[in-house]
Write a structure and sequence with these properties.
The structure holds two protein chains of two kinds. By secondary structure, chain A is mainly α. Chain A contains 14 helices and no strands. Chain B is mainly alpha-helical. Classes of the chains: A mainly alpha, B mainly alpha.
């Protein structure tokens, strides 16, 4: 098991290098020169030259790549073009608001989805099951932007149940602002989660061990609660764990709509103001988080499914 | 034959037939709009600004927007853009996915490791960030939407094809072909490919859904289609209209998207059942 984990850990190094390379190529070679965008159309060549020198863009590409790798390792991404703040500070400040929304929303979604999927899987094949599956597919097919826009309009604007948008730094006060985005988050993700969890549970009911349990006379309820449930937790836990690092990233659209100053809002602002280094930093950090997430999933896997350790 | 059997089963499934008809209807509408036979021109003024939906004329079914243009015509042209994004990104991503999957699965060894490393790396960058980054660095416009979605959406297909090809290359029929002196190229294309090709068809319905959703988000973020009535642009416009109780543009774009995604979703599922021998 130790060897397996070590090998798994070492395997992330080429992936990390690959991700840095892709991001670098994308932003430094495909992206063209950001100085023209920053200085506007009427910049004279000297200004462009000075700025290029300041930003280190006149260095050879390999030097720039190593400089970027250093940024990745030291978590120091320089300053934002538009706000002039250090990017690492912006990111650290954004994590709090993002998590304030993401943790309760994610927790609620997961708990509801598991409860509902257990319920429908138990009543599989009946009209309850079919009805819920139809609802899930319908819910998944509604664009997420529609949930946000109609939700904000009806719940906040028409009925006045929640503040339309905004955020408060003080702790208990900020909660009122996240109720509605969190509700919308649950609505958007519930359909997909329930369908996935239900299928995960039902896949287990076709396994040989279920037939064996049935043929030795165990009751359906016992088979379901004792055998099926435990085994179906493997895909469910994987699915849930892999999403955890993304909670830091927050939900872009929700955050920018409801004025929550988290990482999602920072990214959208960066797109709107062509803030090249911020976008680069966000892309890199999200990829790092994703790699961490898959690593964590694999570690959890060895714990919930002992068969993996043998590989 | 797997295809004959699958088609027979699909045709027996009433829901799947309905969904396929809906998809065909969208495709037909998109083609007519492309040829300029319906809803032209989309930007002509058909009424006052923000006119409520009415049944007086087809162009007023979903009311008008800020400039008095028909929302229904914009929905039709949005369909054209959505279908073209689905089609063109498929044409980009399927060859890439099939090529990498087949090569990695067939040759194995170092080639396999390199390909797997490459797509693991690519898929380690969260899809939405990669989409945004590519669309951003390429500049706004429909071409960068095609490229961004096309080059980010092949990894799933490559994984599946790689697994299937690995399974098939050990089968007797492939060994027989190889002992008769078939080249690597003909082994992959003539012998193995026909047996794994149904995975491509299955992938197609997913590809369309991803492409349409991604296009809407990119256009909404201002990185996508420009100067054309895509559903994402319509939703972006609608954001400011709701507070004036103008709901029809948002409803129009949402409904158009909803029925298409729903049809692809349900049809994809039926197709999977029909082609998957496990559920027989």
């Amino acid at each position: 098991m130790f060897v397996y984990l070590l090998r798994r850990l070492l395997y992330t190094i080429p992936i990390l290098l690959g991700v840095s390379l892709i991001v670098f190529v994308l932003f430094h070679m495909v992206g063209g020169d950001p100085t023209y965008q920053m200085l506007g159309k009427h910049a004279n060549p000297e200004q462009v030259q000075t700025l290029r020198h300041e930003l280190g863009l006149d260095q050879p590409l390999t030097t720039q790549f190593f400089f970027y790798l250093k940024q990745v390792v030291t978590f120091d991404y320089g300053r934002s073009y538009s706000t002039k703040q250090p990017i690492s500070d912006m990111i650290l400040n954004g994590i709090g608001p993002s998590l304030t929304l993401a943790i309760p929303a994610f927790f609620l979604t997961t708990v509801f989805a598991i409860l509902i999927s257990l319920f429908v899987a138990y009543f599989r094949g009946t009209w309850i099951d079919k009805g819920v599956v139809v609802l899930c597919v319908v819910g998944m097919s509604i664009p997420s932007l529609a949930y946000i826009l109609f939700g904000q309009h009806i719940l906040a604007y028409r009925w006045g149940l929640f503040p339309i948008s905004g955020y408060e730094i003080d702790f208990p006060d900020r909660l009122q602002y996240i109720v509605m985005p969190a509700l919308i988050w649950v609505m958007v993700s519930l359909g997909m989660d329930v369908r996935f969890f239900r299928n995960a549970i039902l896949d287990e009911t076709h396994q040989d061990y279920v037939r064996t349990a049935r043929s030795k006379g165990l009751s359906e309820k016992f088979i379901f609660l004792k055998h099926v449930l435990k085994n179906s937790m493997i895909p469910i836990v994987t699915y849930v764990v892999i999403e955890i690092p993304f909670l830091l990233l927050g939900a872009f659209l929700l955050e920018s709509f409801f004025g929550i100053p988290g990482l999602g809002s920072i990214t959208i602002d960066a797109i709107n103001s062509s803030d090249f280094p911020v976008l680069k930093a966000m892309t890199t950090i999200n990829s790092l988080l994703f790699i961490l997430g898959t690593l964590a999933t694999d570690i959890v896997y060895t714990w919930v499914d002992p068969r993996v350790r043998l590989k | 034959m797997i295809w004959k059997e699958a088609i027979r089963r699909i045709l027996k499934d009433r829901l799947a037939v309905i969904c396929l008809s809906i998809i065909c209807l969208y495709a037909f509408t998109a083609a007519l709009a492309k040829l300029g036979l319906v809803a032209t021109p989309w930007d002509s003024v058909v009424g006052g600004n923000y006119q409520r939906p009415s049944s007086d004329s087809i162009s007023l079914w979903f009311g008008t927007d800020l400039f008095g243009r028909s929302v229904f015509y914009k929905m039709i042209h949005g369909t054209r853009i959505a279908m073209s994004v689905g089609l063109i990104t498929s044409l980009i991503s399927i060859p890439i996915g099939v090529f990498f999957g087949a090569v990695a699965g067939y040759f194995g060894g170092v080639i396999d490791e390199i390909v797997v490393w490459f797509y693991t790396t690519l898929s380690s960058i969260p899809n939405i960030m990669l989409l945004i980054a590519i669309a951003y660095v390429m500049g706004r416009g429909i071409t960068s939407v095609y490229v961004a979605i096309g080059v980010t959406s092949w990894v799933g297909l490559a994984r599946v094809i790689r697994g299937e090809v690995m399974k098939h290359k050990e089968r007797d029929y492939v060994l027989a072909a190889s002992s008769l002196g078939a080249t690597h190229f003909s082994m992959i294309m003539k012998h193995i490919m026909p047996n794994v090709f149904h995975q491509v068809i299955l992938n197609l319905s997913l590809q369309f859904q991803t492409a349409i959703r991604s296009e809407v988000i990119l256009s909404y973020l201002g990185l996508g289609v420009h100067g054309q009535p895509s559903w994402g642009i319509m939703i972006d416009d609608a954001r400011l209209e709701l507070s004036r109780h103008v709901w029809w543009q948002l409803a129009g774009a949402t409904l158009s998207m909803f029925f298409l995604i729903l049809a692809f979703n349900v049809f994809g599922e039926s197709l999977r059942d029909a082609l998957d021998p496990k559920v027989k």
